Amino acid sequence: MIHSKFKSFWTRFWMQFAGLSMFGRIATRLATWFAPPYYRRCYMAQLNSKGYISPTANIYHANLKLGAHVFIGDRVMIFQDINGGPLELCDRVQMYGDTFIQTGDGGSIKIGEETHIQPNCQLSAYWGCIQIGSRVEIAPNCAFYPYNHNFASGKPIRNQSGITKGGIIIGDDAWLGFGVIVLDGVRIGNGAVIGAGSVVTHNVPDGAIAVGVPAHIVKMRSKLD
Q: Domain residue spans in the chain?
């Protein structure tokens, strides 16, 4: 009992000083000494308005804006490439391990309040922007690409410029299953559900259930009652 109280005190004490500064990152590392991994660390983000940023997360982004009580898990990479635009995580966003999120070539990213991004996702905002609403649930291994590549003949693809049909918009309260890929110029509506393994190439309206490659609407949630 005494040992348990000490561990709780230790974590709460060091989380007072957590943050993006060098000292803040050291304080977070100290706070985790007695803390279980993964989901069991989510409560630590509530102990400080600056949130919880894993000691193993890599942050390299000059235009990063973090809301209150954000959770950033183990080995998350937040990266700003050349000409990358701003990246904003709103209040209580949770982003779990091994997710890679980057901006470059004018792209930007905004993730709304209380959205949860599970492990191994990739958000690459180049040439277009990614805007994810509030309370969105994103399963592991999802990918968001608001751009494509020219691939005309007679010239290596790697030497051709990127193109985009427009940014990606995910509405509030949407759910994306395991391994969903969302491509440029797509809007997924409020409360929409995208089935596991789907590739979304066209807009999905509010409240729709879409599955497949490419994703197509199979039912409206309003018809499930």
A: 1-45, 56-223
